[in-house]
């Protein structure tokens, strides 16, 4: 019986790791025809497995509010897109990815939460390492798309952060819990992440990584009364209204000009925000769904709207999304989708504040804050791990308790850099 149990757990771990690998398909595979078809099948299969487990085999477990809201979020978006004749296949595949990852992550939290700091982390780290090799071997890009040439294993350089950030957050969390081999894993992660963002020099990604490391230092991390999920969310909302709505860019010129290397229009983003806002005002309740790239690009043509105020380079692809998560959510799904999205953020922040002294809560607070900070100027369509991180925030008390029971009393050391000592 003991042998059977060991084999069963091992097989379950392999299946879960395989499902994560499918959902987190490296972007490069999307542009290899055979792999693209294969992974679509694997993603659908992993989704159906996660859904069946959630529906039929979870009797007696308390359902996560965030999981339910993420399902509602994507069901509404898919239905609205279908009604409006938009990119139904695209939004459906994205919904399968986002919902499937949340379902899978909730199951892992109930079953073996430390798997998130081992199996999932190892998978992400492997992808980051392969991406590092492609940057090393193909400095001008591994492949080209219609709009960009600086694409690597994880995709376009700005989008690499969707894997880099969760990897860094999980590696630091593992180190804080003092799990086996956490120090060398963190050293390797820091090297790979810093090398990647410095070489591709994505301004927003560099700020996100720098903020993550800074906020993990003891003098900030230990100040949980001030530095917690709830306060971080309030700061993000204030930054959104200050920069995107009221355009107080001059107050943030040090960050925008000196750190991000952009002008005070954020490389034309202020023009895009105004254009998107105009469309939101025309349909504020329901939204437009997910439109095809060709239609969205033509609809958002900036040159015809602003004339010579903008460069011709901004007229082609800049309008494919709003370059801001809140605005893009409002554009796609109006007030209805925005309310669901805000409810997800509030539930996460509330639980993070409630458990603010737990290691996992501190790190998920930082992860949520820096991700949302990056989303002030980017949409990050491939942010598949964003909702799972928020789910981990909601379940921070359960994760912390389970890890403590398994590994014993934890040492609450909140420094990223103590491995140097």
How would you summarize what this structure contains?
This protein is mostly helical and 421 residues long. The chain has helices spanning 2-23, 27-30, 33-56, 65-83, 88-111, 119-137, 161-176, 182-200, 203-215, 218-221, 229-245, 253-259, 269-282, 293-299, 303-306, 325-354, 359-374, 386-394, 396-407, and strands at residues 151-152, 155-156.
Question: How would you summarize the topology of this molecule?
Answer:
Blueprint: H1 2-23, H2 27-30, H3 33-56, H4 65-83, H5 88-111, H6 119-137, E1 151-152, E2 155-156, H7 161-176, H8 182-200, H9 203-215, H10 218-221, H11 229-245, H12 253-259, H13 269-282, H14 293-299, H15 303-306, H16 325-354, H17 359-374, H18 386-394, H19 396-407
Antiparallel strand pairs: 1-2
Could you explain the architecture of this structure?
The protein has 421 residues and is mainly α. The protein is built from 19 helices and 2 strands. The model is unreliable at 1-8 and 410-421 (pLDDT under 50). The protein has a two-stranded antiparallel ribbon.
Helix content: 55-70%
Give the structural class: mainly alpha
Mean pLDDT: 87
Strand portion, in percent? under 5%
- Order of strands across the main sheet: 1-2
Characteristic terms for this protein:
single chain; 421 residues; mainly alpha; two-stranded antiparallel ribbon; 19 helices; 67% helix; disordered C terminus
């Amino acid at each position: 019986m003991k042998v059977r149990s060991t084999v069963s757990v091992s097989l379950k771990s392999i299946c879960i790791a395989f499902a994560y690998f499918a959902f987190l398909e490296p972007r490069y595979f999307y542009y290899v025809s055979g792999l693209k078809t294969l992974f679509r099948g694997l993603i659908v299969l992993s989704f159906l497995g996660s859904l069946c487990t959630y529906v039929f085999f979870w009797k007696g477990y308390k359902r996560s509010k965030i999981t339910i809201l993420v399902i509602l979020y994507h069901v509404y978006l898919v239905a609205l897109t279908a009604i409006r004749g938009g990119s139904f296949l695209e939004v459906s595949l994205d919904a399968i990815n986002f919902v499937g990852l949340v379902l899978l992550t909730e199951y892992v939290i109930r079953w073996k939460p430390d798997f998130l700091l081992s199996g999932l982390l190892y998978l992400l780290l492997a992808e980051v390492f392969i991406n590092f090799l492609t940057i090393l071997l193909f400095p001008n890009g591994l492949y080209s798309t219609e709009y960009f040439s600086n694409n690597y294993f994880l995709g376009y350089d700005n989008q690499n952060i969707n894997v880099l950030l969760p990897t860094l957050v999980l590696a630091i969390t593992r180190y804080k819990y003092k799990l086996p081999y956490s120090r060398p894993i963190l050293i390797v992660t820091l090297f790979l992440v810093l090398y990647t963002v410095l070489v591709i020099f994505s301004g927003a990604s560099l700020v996100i990584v720098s903020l993550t490391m800074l906020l993990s230092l003891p003098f900030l991390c230990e100040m949980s009364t001030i530095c917690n999920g709830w306060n971080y969310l309030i700061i993000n909302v204030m930054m959104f209204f200050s920069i995107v709505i009221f355009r107080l860019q001059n107050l943030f010129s040090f960050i925008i000009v000196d750190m991000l290397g952009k002008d005070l229009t954020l490389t034309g983003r202020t023009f895009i925000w105004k254009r998107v806002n105009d469309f939101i005002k025309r349909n504020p309740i329901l939204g437009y769904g997910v439109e095809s790239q060709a239609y969205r690009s033509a609809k958002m043509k900036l040159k015809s709207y602003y004339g010579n105020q903008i460069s011709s380079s901004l007229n082609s692809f800049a309008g494919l999304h709003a370059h801001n998560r809140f605005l893009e959510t409002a554009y796609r799904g109006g007030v209805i989708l925005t309310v669901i999205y805000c409810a997800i953020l509030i539930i996460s922040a509330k639980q993070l504040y409630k458990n603010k002294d737990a290691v996992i809560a501190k790190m998920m607070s930082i992860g949520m804050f820096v991700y949302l900070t990056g989303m002030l100027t980017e949409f990050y369509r491939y942010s598949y791990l964003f909702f799972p991180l928020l789910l981990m925030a909601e379940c921070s008390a359960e994760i912390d308790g389970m890890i403590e029971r398994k590994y014993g009393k934890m040492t609450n050391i909140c420094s990223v850099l103590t491995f140097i000592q």
